Amino acid sequence: MRAEARGKAHQALREALRREAQAQWDHRPMTPLCLMESLARVLPEHAAVIEESPTTTGGYLERVGALRDPAGYFAQRGWALGWGLNCAIGVKLAWPDRPVLAVIGDGSALYGIQGLWTAAHYRIPVTFVITNNTQYKILKECAEVLRLPEAAAGRYVGLDVVDPAIDYLGLARSFGVAAERVREPDELCQAVRAALGAGVPRVIEVPIAS
Length: 210
Description:
Distance between the termini: 42 Å
Strand content: 5-15%
CATH superfamily: Thiamin diphosphate (ThDP)-binding fold, Pyr/PP domains
Order of helices and strands: HHEHHEHEHHEHHHEHE
CATH architecture: 3-Layer(aba) Sandwich
Helix content: 40-55%
Mean pLDDT: 94
Shape: globular
Structural class: alpha/beta
Low-confidence stretches: none
Strand order of the largest sheet: 2-1-3-4-6-5
Radius of gyration: 17 Å
Number of strands: 6
CATH class: Alpha Beta
């Protein structure tokens, strides 16, 4: 009885979270919850997932039960940046028969963006979703946790990726990887589903709310 009650409570939490995401479906720019719900809807059961977008993903795929194989889930909870994009390439080399989805923040991507050349050169079919909030948001949050004086005053020097904005589509294409920008959740579902089955590396940039 106790296990049954806990199971029902857990399921209720999952359903509540998905309803919250659905309630944000019409928000633009797309919210992090809406983006993650879009991915949850099309994630294949045997997919491997790499997450390095810590202020966006929020453990959403875990929390709603979208991850069928925990062994194929790679995420980092500590203070490190820049590992995700190239980790995804390694995961695909290790598991060539599994679709690989990498959810990478725009700031995180910039630490290892040259890995896209490797994906293109060796034709490694990873789908890279770049969540673009035009900032190193995790560094801002870490500065707040550390109570740094400039963060307390609301000043984050060098942590807003604007003026000029980075053209992630042009950047991906310069490395030889096809790329597209998606602003609508239903369009994101379609783009990710198509990319996972395309057999080539692809970048999907999604502008999101900060």
